[in-house]
Amino acid sequence: MFEEGEFILSTFAGPVGQGNSPSLNNHEDIEAQLIPGGRLLPFLVVTVLFFLWAIPNNLNDILIQQFMKSFNINRSSAAGVQIWFYLGYFLLAIPAGQLMRRFGYKMGIVTGLCLLGSGCLLFYPAAQAGLYWFFLVAQFVIASGLSFLETGSNSFIAQLGPAGSSERRLNLSQAFNPLGSISAGLIGTVFIFSGVKLSDAQVAAMQVAGTYQAYLHSETLRVVTPYLVLGCIAFVWALLVLVTRFPDLGSEDVSEGSSSGGMHVRLWQPHFVFAVLAQFLYVGAQVGTWSYFIAYVESATGVGDKAAGYMLTGTLAAFAVGRFSSAWLMRHFRARLMLVVYSVINVGLCLVAVVHPSWIGVGCLLTTSLFMSIMFPTIFALGLKSMGEKTKTAGSFLVMAILGGAALTKLMGMLPLRSAYLVPVVCYIGVALYAWLFAEAKVGEALG
Q1: Mean pLDDT, to the nearest integer, of 305-333?
Q2: Which of 50, 151, 160, 411 could be a cystine partner for 96, CB 3.0 to 4.6 Å?
Q3: pTM of the full predicted structure?
Q4: Which alpha helices (H) appear in 15-104, and where do they start and end?
């Protein structure tokens, strides 16, 4: 343990605001203190989790492509990887929120890390058995852990300082998430993809020789090592969280106004309800775009899976650039306005990808990650405004909205690859409408 002095990230934050006093003034929101004194260590420990959970999230895009090969299944069947994954998010979000309401953020985060580690270790017996459904069970356990981590970490970071800086603070922590995504893309491309692409004639020859099933099993085994390493890291970090002292946030929240005091706050405020819907649409657009990105690149350009995998890493790098640049831009522009502009840009980029399935389309899809980067943390922070005592419960529902990653990815898998990218177009239109019309929390509507 060590004592931290007052910590201000001057690169991303303006002058220090007045403690934890919320304000409705836009200028004061922009200038609010980012991280209060004495809270640097828990901020860093929790921020690392944003990097960590991005790895299994984005390895799913690799798994879909790998399992299509090793289990000889189609795109729609391989979408089961995302369905079972996001089902875990959906079903465990409310229990996660309730556990943290009773025992605090630390217990919820430790529980999440233990579930993540356990699910990763299940990859070994799943690969030895060579059973696709066993991997789906492991995915469910992993996602159950991530549901605890995301419910706790996003809400914790949002509550860690003044309301006026909650969007910037959460975008800063979330900026480390795409670094994990990039790591996942590289890990999957280097250690999981073999680069072997058999022709129909080669497959037929191996089937005659009786070696084809052994080849498929060897491809399945390639997924084991990255997950075993990730599982061990999760258990080690759980111990680190246990020995870190977390601040008692008590009744602190990301409210826009302090007038509610100890009064009852309504859960189903309009700005929160539409935030949940917008989060469902955004996550569906993000997961669907990345899940079939490799297949789109192969179809549009004719390159192999390793080359397409490196391009997936490129789009994840664009996502990282978007997160860090946006954390800085929010010093000067309102989060709602940026969300509108970025959504409209992505509508145009996805439409070009649908109309021009070529290197032009690939470039446009790659660029969408730059502009989708701010959407999750910004929607999350805006949705928690004025939620007061309902902050942890509201965070649970915002995490449950991640189910869009399963539902809309499955929908895209049922459509022809080219027209499938019309689904993200509709999603981004929905996010833009939310940001323009419904994102403002009205203090008068917050009280029951």
Answers
A1: 85
A2: 151
A3: 0.72
A4: 26-31, 40-70, 75-78, 80-103
